């Protein structure tokens, strides 16, 4: 399923190829969140034109609405959302745990299961490792994630140790249920299954969790919990240490890593895949990611190495910038949203017009901004792949 094509000699970055039932993915890669089986404001045709290879769907949200029975009749989430390329589903655990952490009256966590109250209609539900896997098989995705206990990074040592023990126990149950479902459904092309390594900022706890999960055996392993501390500082040491704990022939999933500079740093540590709401969510608030034009298309130049941005401090000013299109300075900016875009609408519409669309709350504003940011992220990943191939990352 996963094959490493090139290992960098300058860092731990790797170039790879992932084959799934619904297509091939080139690694390292980024997946936008199609939370409720849709990337907000975009159609499947929009995503195909961008060249997107994979997305993440949210097990928790799809289980609650429209419900798994509807998805099964489609049949499967790919058919339901008119997407014929690979999909990854999360376990649903992160959303349930976040719900309970915010309000303990909305649920209860035990070693057996998680009981929670639906924010949609108030109904009560149980989520077990087995049920999470069953739901993900019903979705019909190419990649799925084990249910894990995801405490905040600043949790006490006792809570963190308990979360690790629960994560390991649930991973075992997920693997058993996975094998049962493969046999029961007579599945030939098995979806990939990911274990999630917890442990907060403790290297020792990360090691304990990683060793137990790799002993169970999964197709890939994720970095559990947030990749930044409570102050927003990038957790470089835990991320690098955890990547080294994962077998070289397995995929390394940086869950929730989405800031451009953080993606680059994580790639250099050996992480292969990323997902985050940043490009789409910030687009809806008028924040656009813009390439410094001299760096948008990199070519090897012996006199001037354009890949050197990877070796410099990760300052936005050196290779990209972010702009808030709702600022007054764009009222009369008639330059294209992105003159180098492969999408005609981003070349044709101006920043002044996009500013106007946001101010008048026209839905087209969200679509154009989201297209811009996703194209930026896909260009970023493509250029990272080229840099690894050229031996410059």
Automatic annotation (TrEMBL):
Asked whether the keyword Nuclease is assigned, the reply is no
Q: Would you kindly state one Gene Ontology biological process term found in this protein's UniProt entry?
A: tRNA wobble guanine modification
Which InterPro entries does the entry link to? ArchSynthase1/Queuine_TRR, TGT, TGT-like_sf, tRNA_ribo_trans-like
Per UniProt, the keywords (alphabetical) are: Glycosyltransferase, Transferase, tRNA processing
- Residue ranges of the tRNA-guanine(15) transglycosylase-like domain? 11-393
Q: Look up the domain of life of the source.
A: Bacteria
**Which GO MF terms are attached to this record?**
tRNA-guanosine(34) queuine transglycosylase activity
Q: Which organism is it from?
A: Candidatus Komeilibacteria bacterium RIFCSPLOWO2_02_FULL_48_11
One cellular component GO annotation, for this chain's record?
cytoplasm
Q: Cite a single Pfam family from the UniProt record.
A: TGT
Name under which the protein is recorded: tRNA-guanine(15) transglycosylase-like domain-containing protein
Q: Which SUPFAM superfamilies does the entry link to?
A: tRNA-guanine transglycosylase
């Amino acid at each position: 399923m996963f094959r490493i094509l090139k290992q960098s000699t300058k860092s731990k970055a790797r170039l790879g190829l992932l084959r799934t039932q619904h297509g091939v993915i080139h690694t390292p890669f980024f997946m936008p969140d199609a939370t409720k089986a849709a990337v907000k404001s975009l159609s499947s045709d929009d995503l195909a034109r961008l060249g997107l290879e994979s997305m993440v769907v949210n097990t928790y949200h799809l289980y609650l609405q429209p419900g798994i029975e509807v998805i099964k009749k489609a049949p499967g989430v790919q058919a339901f959302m008119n997407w014929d390329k690979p999909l990854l589903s999360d376990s649903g655990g992160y959303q349930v745990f976040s719900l309970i952490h915010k309000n303990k009256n909305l649920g209860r966590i035990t070693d057996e299961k998680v009981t929670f109250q639906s924010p949609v209609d108030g109904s009560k539900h149980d989520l077990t490792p087995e049920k999470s896997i069953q739901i993900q098989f019903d979705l019909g995705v190419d990649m799925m994630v084990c249910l894990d206990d995801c405490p905040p990074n600043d949790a006490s040592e006792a809570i963190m140790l308990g979360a690790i023990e629960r994560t390991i126990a649930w991973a075992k149950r997920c693997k058993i249920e996975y094998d049962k479902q493969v046999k029961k459904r007579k599945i030939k092309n098995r979806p990939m299954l990911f274990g999630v390594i917890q442990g907060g900022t403790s290297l020792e706890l990360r090691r304990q969790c990683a060793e137990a999960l790799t002993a169970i055996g999964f197709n890939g392993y994720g970095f559990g919990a947030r990749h930044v501390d409570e102050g927003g500082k990038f957790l470089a040491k835990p991320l690098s240490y955890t990547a080294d704990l994962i077998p070289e022939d397995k995929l390394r999933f940086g869950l929730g890593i989405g800031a451009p500079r953080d993606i680059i740093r994580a790639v250099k540590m050996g992480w292969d895949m990323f997902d985050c709401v940043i490009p789409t969510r910030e687009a809806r608030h008028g924040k656009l990611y813009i390439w410094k034009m001299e760096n948008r298309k990199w070519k090897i130049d012996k006199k001037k190495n354009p890949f050197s941005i990877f070796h410099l401090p990760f300052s936005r000013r050196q290779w990209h910038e972010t702009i808030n299109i709702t600022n007054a300075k764009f009222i009369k900016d008639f330059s294209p949203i992105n003159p180098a875009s492969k999408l005609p609408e981003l070349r044709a519409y101006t920043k002044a017009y996009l500013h106007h669309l946001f101010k008048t709350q026209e839905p087209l504003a969200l679509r154009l901004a989201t297209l811009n940011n996703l194209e930026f992220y896909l260009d970023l990943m493509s250029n990272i792949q080229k840099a690894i191939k050229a031996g410059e990352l």
